[in-house]
Amino acid sequence: MSSSHESKFPDKPLGNENDRKKFEALLKKKNLKFTYERKYIFEEISRLKGHFDADSLYERFKEKGLRIARDTVYRTLPLLLESGVLQKSAGEGKREYFERISSKGHHDHMICIKTGRIIEFHCDEIERLQEEIARKYGFKIIFHDHRIFGLSKEAQEQE
Ligand SMILES: [Zn+2]
Ligand SMILES: [Zn+2]
Questions:
Q1: CA–CA separation, 56 and 71 (whole Å)
Q2: What domains, with CATH codes, occur in the chain?
Q3: CA distance 29 to 26
Q4: Is pLDDT at 87 greater than 80 in this prediction?
Q5: Which residues touch 157 (CB under 8 Å, ≥6 apart)?
Q6: 105, 91 in Cβ contact below 8 A?
Q7: Cβ(154)–Cβ(118) under 8 Å?
Q8: DSSP states of the chain as a string?
Q9: Which ligand lies nearest to the CA atom of residue 130 in the structure?
Q10: In this structure, are residues 112 and 91 in contact, taking their beta carbons and an 8 Å threshold?
Q11: Per-residue pLDDT averaged across 141-147, rounded?
Q12: By CB neighbour count within 10 A (0-12 exposed, 13-18 middle, 19+ buried), where does 96 fall?
């Protein structure tokens, strides 16, 4: 029997142990190994609190002198998304941004196309409706990325 008590590990970053379990479970399911590259990527991500993109993550390895190919970073991020360790996030430009779910909990984003301001929100009703719609279409959600683009209050006042 297994039971998890996060409170048993108050000295560790919140969610880290759980995240590892989630990631390991997905790798196992896909018959993939927890290679040292994947471990480094996982560890590095555990240190990040905010929004990041694949290239900035890759740069961190380069700065530390770790030999991890950009390609490996790009190929590992979808696995971290699927395992529920990461969620798609938002940032400036057309890049894909990510963040750790365990740092703030699942949330979605509103992005101001004028000021670049990002508003994070969580809505139980939207989450529930997404599930409901997917079920209706016999669709299995792996992860979702809900972003709303528009003008923030400040940007509208500038118009
Ligand atoms: Zn966010
Ligand atoms: Zn959501």
A1: 13
A2: 1-104 (1.10.10.10), 106-159 (3.30.1490.190)
A3: 5
A4: yes
A5: none
A6: no
A7: no
A8: -----GGG-TTSPTTHHHHHHHHHHHHHHTT----HHHHHHHHHHHH--S-EEHHHHHHHHHHHT----HHHHHHHHHHHHHTTSEEEE--SSSS-EEEEHHHH-S-EEEEETTT--EEEE--HHHHHHHHHHHHHTT---S----EEEE--HHHHHH-
A9: 2
A10: no
A11: 90
A12: middle
Among the bound ligands, the one closest to the CA of 88: 1
The residue whose two tokens read 């719609």 is: 133
**In the prediction, which pLDDT does 2 show?**
39
Quick one: tokens of 129? 């409706």
Q: How far is the CA of 8 from the centre of ligand 1 (A)?
A: 27
Band (16; pLDDT cuts 50, 70, 90)? confident
Using the mean position of ligand 1's atoms as its centre, give its distance from the Cα of residue 75 in Å: 21
Do the beta carbons of residue 151 and residue 119 sit within 8 Å?
no
What is the pTM (predicted TM-score) of this model? 0.81
> Residue 115: which residues within 8 A CB-CB, separation 6 or more?
152, 154, 155
Q: Report how far Cα 73 is from the mean position of its chain's Cα atoms.
A: 14
Q: For residue 109, give the ligand nearest its CA.
A: 1
Pair 85, 22: CB distance under 8 Å: yes
- Please report where in the chains the tokens 């919140």 appear, as a residue: 14
